[in-house]
Amino acid sequence: MKRLLCVLLLLLATCAQAQLKPNDRLAITGDSITEQKQYSVFIEDYLLMCQPLTGVRAMQFGWGGETSWGFLNRLDNDCLQFKPTIATTCFGMNDGGYGPLNPDRFEKYKNATDGLLHAFEKAGVRVVLGSPGVVDHNTAYGGDRAKTDVYNQILKAERDAVEAIAKEHGVAFADVYSPMMDVMTKAEAKYGSKYHVAGGDGVHPSANGHLVMAYAFLKALGCDGNIATINVDLTGKRATASEGQSVKSFDGQALTIESTRYPFCFVLDPKITAIDDPGNHRGVLEFLPFNQDLNRYTLVVTGAPANAKVKITWGDASKEFSVDELTKGINLAAEFLDNPFAEQFRKVDSLVRAKQNFETSMIKSLVHGVRYELPDEKQLLSDVVSATTKMQQVLANRAADAVVPVTHTITIQILP
After folding, report:
1. Which listed site, 147, 222, 275, 350, has its alpha carbon 20 to 30 Å from 22?
2. pLDDT in tens, 318-328
3. pTM assigned to the model
4. Spatial contact of 43 and 217, defined as CB atoms under 8 Å apart
5. If you ran DSSP here, which 8-state letter would residue 228 be given?
């Protein structure tokens, strides 16, 4: 019992240390999976729209084919000079070598992870150490499950090593491996062997797998998931709302709210509609507690007649709920995936993606290119860093400025 209490206290302390602060500059670092700009976009979307803190900005530093030790060698030039205050790491997929366990590579991975932690901390950067994810059961190694299982065991060993380093140094740990393995197993049971969570090539996920990754990092960053609580008293015709939500009017049935804090919206490419398409991240929501843990936009209604049925209309959709459900509170974000925030969420998301696309060319082609191809051109490097940073800030501000108040109406109707 005493040991369990110590573990719980350690976990609580780690979470508290990992929480974002106003004006933080978050560096999202990793390999080609990060360079896909999907989980990193989900994270930035969430931080801008769902639980905004004043002045928080994110920057994506993914690099195809990268390893922990490769990133460590270029950390100063390609990341630290942009002065992040907090960083996430996600390495290990390439570090394992895609073959049987190589003890030398494994030790190199652990040493490089420890080295990254110390280098970040020396620069005054708080760190969330992330584990690698998984390779897909059905698509990695041409579907050879024996080889897939072997490599996933290596990735699990890397996960365990990163967790041990995080605990040793008292920093936050993002377990990407475990939820990805869990979701992949459950999704395969429902959708069949053609459905992949870790990507069509077995390594690079589609939107479904990236949502799982974003979940792991947002949890480790200390996000509590309380987006909004809206309380409605039908008897007294009163309504109140939490921070980020302003009640404009309530006539006993129609409740109009102006919101500056959005629920996370699972916006889709119009070409993607099937729930078993890996590009549709809604397909994993029943296996992943994203809405429960990170996306609670709660409506609590009291004063309805006992045993009544109540119709809730939000945007273009309506659903019926019992009095007991509404008294306890329903999560509008989970019940209404297509909701009045979706259009503006999509606009902000597109601006975030444009910014992160620029960040890839900014770091890989320009900043890194000048530093390593023209090492004597120090003034040129300084000018490139200055010019690209200004552009990156313009794009970041453009995305942040698009998070405008959304006015919407929730209609509460007692059914006969």
Report:
1. 350
2. 999 999 999 99
3. 0.94
4. yes
5. E
What is the rounded CA–CA span in Å between residue 384 and residue 416? 68
| Angle of CA points 295, 301, 302, to nearest 5° | 145
| 311: helix, strand or coil | strand
Domains along the chain with CATH numbers: 2-220 (3.40.50.1110)
- Given the DSSP bridges, would you call strands 126-130 and 317-322 parallel, antiparallel or unpaired? unpaired
Q: How far apart are CA 305 and CA 353, in angstroms?
A: 47
Cβ-count burial of 107 within 10 angstroms (0-12 exposed, 13-18 middle, 19+ buried)? Answer: exposed
Residues in a beta bridge with 296: 226
d(CA 182, CA 179) in angstroms, rounded, equals 5
Whether the per-residue pLDDT at 15 is higher than 90: the answer is: no
Query: What are the phi and psi torsion angles at 263 (to 5°)?
Result: -75, 155
CA-based radius of gyration for the chain:
23
Strands 330-331 and 296-302: antiparallel
187-193, Cβ contacts within 8 angstroms, sequence gap of 24 or more: 187/283, 187/284, 187/287, 188/137, 188/138, 191/276, 191/283, 192/276, 193/137, 193/138
